[in-house]
Amino acid sequence: MHTYELNNQYLSVKVNSFGAELCSVKSVSDSIEYVWQANKDVWARYAPNLFPIVGKLKNGSYSFNGNSYQLPQHGFARDNEFVCVEESADKLVFEFSSNKETLLSYPFVFRLQIAYTLKGKELLVEYFVFNPDKFDLYFSVGAHPAFNCPLLKDETFEDYELIF
After folding, report:
1. What is the DSSP string of the chain?
2. Residue 164 pLDDT
3. 0.90 cut: is pTM over it?
């Protein structure tokens, strides 16, 4: 595992190659950390990327073309090493592709890319799924980020609300 960094005048961002997982988004001006810091006693992840499924399968398995396959909750991308295929001052792109092991539980050929782009005070996260095969590719993709709350010492959880 390797940790990659993006920095500008507003934000400092860190991404682990394992799972292409965002592990830190910190304000440069006041050092506020926005991403949960993976307390192993509570939840040992920061912001896992979910592929080829989001959620849980009934009994952990599914059938396709007469065969039965097993997939763990949220798939396997979060538990694999990604390759950084693009690195610049403001962008990181990570890639994970199907292999002998993934084909045992997910019989589809794929390339998954996750791009992190720093633009001023914003971090843009994009997911790209490529199908190099002639067959349909069935998947879902998502993220499970955890954020610190409260952010400041004199605040409580009740000082926050989430509005959709």
Report:
1. --EEEEE-SSEEEEEETBTTEEEEEEETTT--B-B----TTT---SS-EEBS-SS--GGGEEEETTEEEE--TTBSGGGSBPEEEEE-SSEEEEEEE--HHHHHH-----EEEEEEEEETTEEEEEEEEE--SSS------EE---B-SS-STT--GGG-----
2. 83
3. yes
